[in-house]
């Protein structure tokens, strides 16, 4: 009986297989046309081949930025920005600890939300990428030649630095708007006196066109709303900046309910050129504050932190024509400007529709003084007379919009979990595709510039669920890549991200590939503890501080035997990597170090501190597999009792 | 039986250590596992094959960017000084004058190698250890320790070559 049974099953299986073959002569299921290549082919980057685009995804609560390739979805690097990163020693090494200094002391973490690539004439120029720290308000600038964080500036008078870090179309300013309004200046006052007393600071940070160095130019002190997201004007609207707001109710408790009472909140339009002019003519008030400005110098391989005590604040009602409010329904979240700069899109997150304001109509309404009242002296423009159109999406919970180069917009819908493609001008929905699941931001390379590369769209989701093998209660967030080169979007691929991606920025690989730095030149190393020759390797004592001037090359440390260290000494390993070849870092790890290892790039100097606490002979070793003799790359430190008279000595091979 | 012997040795070893005191711990060399031939042993085996580093080959140019170098009979002392300075920064981590270190000493190198071979080894070590048979053997002789590409220009490598000419 059993045998017969098995045979029957086998026959059925063969039959089914034949049926499948018969049904699907093209061989792959789900394809809607014989001409379209398969999704797999579109994302497949053969071994040794490289991706077409770079994508920089925010890490959210990881505090860092991750670098991916598109269309493969392969992760290339995690760039430490606001978080200590033992992988490289960032925030642990003596040189990089100042990067994380703030007015609250050393803050080793932040919540990184919105990266934005520098622009010239409204097009991506690939020099730097800016990103915000949401929690302890900060803006970082990351070099796109070294892929290292070079500068972090703290934002005073701000809290929940969310409508940040977005740049103007020639990178004149990087903008940081506060999400939480607070007393300005900070003071002891009852929380329930929020309304009318708390303020929202919108900070304009000027960017030096040569070096990229940031400086707070002015802060526009706005009413105590929540400033959520922001976009620059571009093209004809260049000179303006747009910020979405919610909680125009100015509630201070049970916000879920109390800040959703008004049918419309605002998009605040700031004419920053007018404010700039006003400040240049001596307008504004210089007020006492305290914030950190941290700058990394590539030539000394070291950061410095400077506390700054003054900032210029501006009362916008004192500048005629500087600020207007555009009523926007249902607690708008995303505030996006199309490539032409003609349309400002407000996505009411509790709505089904997307509101589009016209920049032309806005300027006309301003000229005609077509106002619908005012808020704290700021004119509110007439909603109907600035409206360009409404996208009747059929979805629910619109959040963010990006653009292609063909006059289309793509909006994410969190609640209905989809991306909706619609046409600028006609406001008609063209296509919609589901996301998996509950999409937040989306990114089209160049999608926040005058010149989008409209080939791929990346949707970054808040919920992962069943997309990958389960890994316990916590899953990395999923992202999906869509091909948007045709009329209909095509889902190509799914990939996990790191931390929680909010916004992302992307650009063509051609923009960055050739200027990516390969080594630091040893003869340009100005680190005060660098040694440019192993002949200078030495150990010096200064009281209880001991400085080891050490060099590395495949595969040894110079020196590798050090004696005369005593219990209670604070030992500085100043390690210069003498390699001058691409991709040959050396690391150093010291047993019991209360910091981390450091990874030293070719030609670079880094310092890690080790405290000698116990008598003995203690090893250190190279953490990066550097050559066939990497396992031999090690050394010893002899630690003698505090009262010992063992002399300081060092050697290699003697 | 064997285990007991081992145990005995270990105990003896421990005792020896303890008795050494804290001044200077005894240099114990109780075991030899394929230890390399010592200097004295080398004399006994005079027939031992010549090492790649000692071999003389003045005709091979090596593989790399340098196809021909002409040396002036007179040493250019300014160029040699510039070369010495570069050598002190970028080479001495592995090559000491007058002494084998991580790699061979540069002394008398031009009596054994062509100037082109030397410059190619400096400028394109990754290619040399793959494609030049002698460089391949040298990598093995020196424990598989790779020669680092220090990113020198041809002019800088030429200066180092001039410095090598001053080393007997």
Automatic annotation (TrEMBL), chain A:
Domain of life: Bacteria
The keyword Aminoacyl-tRNA synthetase is assigned to this record: no
Keywords, ordered alphabetically: Copper, Metal-binding
One GO location term (cellular component): cell envelope
Localization terms from the record: Cell envelope
SUPFAM superfamilies: Cupredoxins (SSF49503), Nitrous oxide reductase, N-terminal domain (SSF50974)
GO molecular function: copper ion binding
NCBIfam families: nitrous_NosZ_Gp
Name recorded for this polypeptide: Nitrous oxide reductase apoprotein
Source organism per UniProt: Robiginitalea myxolifaciens
TrEMBL record, chain B:
Residues in Cytochrome c domain copies: 78-168
Keywords: Heme, Iron, Metal-binding
Database matches in PROSITE patterns: CYTC
Gene3D superfamilies: Cytochrome c-like domain (1.10.760.10)
Residues spanning the signal sequence: none
InterPro entries from the UniProt entry: Cyt_c-like_dom, Cyt_c-like_dom_sf
GO molecular function: electron transfer activity; heme binding; metal ion binding
Name of this chain's protein: Cytochrome c, mono-and diheme variants
